[in-house]
């Protein structure tokens, strides 16, 4: 079997009327808005905290460790790239200090818009920031919520560790794989 090679997924274009959004203030940090990536029609929506680094200092596109790890573990769990759409709580990568709680609250309206348009069959929140923001519970933690389904805003939602945490602490990889297999099992049981 050939070795799986992660790829840069196609970006879902930011709606034109939001390209210059200034509501949260992150535009002042100079990063561009990233609406999402992968298959916009995918049945599984993955929510991360922010889009992370996407270009190097010269402006050349590259695949960051978070996206590499996510794709590798998703593949190992039996999920196909075309079944995944990745989006973010914050649509811009923060590069300096900012009011985290306020900014996340403001940016949730964009995620709400995506949810109403895309209507995913399943949602997977990765990392405490995404989990706390999506569940609207600042006390929510992956370690106590993983391994079960939660009805959040009418969507079947699972949670797992952030791929960056897995890169920093490789012992978490088996837990991320377990959680992605948990999602894959539900996905295939739904007839996909």
Structural overview:
The chain is of the alpha/beta class and 192 residues long. It has a single domain (11-189), classed as Uracil-DNA Glycosylase, subunit E, CATH 3.40.470.10. The protein contains 6 helices and 7 strands. It has helices at 65-76, 100-118, 128-135, 142-145, 163-168, 173-189, and strands spanning 11-12, 36-38, 44-48, 84-88, 122-126, 150-152, 155-160. Strands 1-2-4-3-5-7-6 form a 7-stranded mixed β-sheet, with helices on both faces. The model has no long low-confidence stretch (mean pLDDT 95).
The major sheet is characterized as: 7 strands, mixed
Which fold name fills CATH's third level, the topology? Uracil-DNA Glycosylase, subunit E
What is the CATH superfamily label? Uracil-DNA glycosylase-like domain
H/E series, N to C? EEEHEHEHHEEHH
Spatial order of strands in the largest sheet: 1-2-4-3-5-7-6
In CATH terms, what is the architecture?
A: 3-Layer(aba) Sandwich
- Helical run tally: 6
Strand content: 15-25%
Number of strands: 7
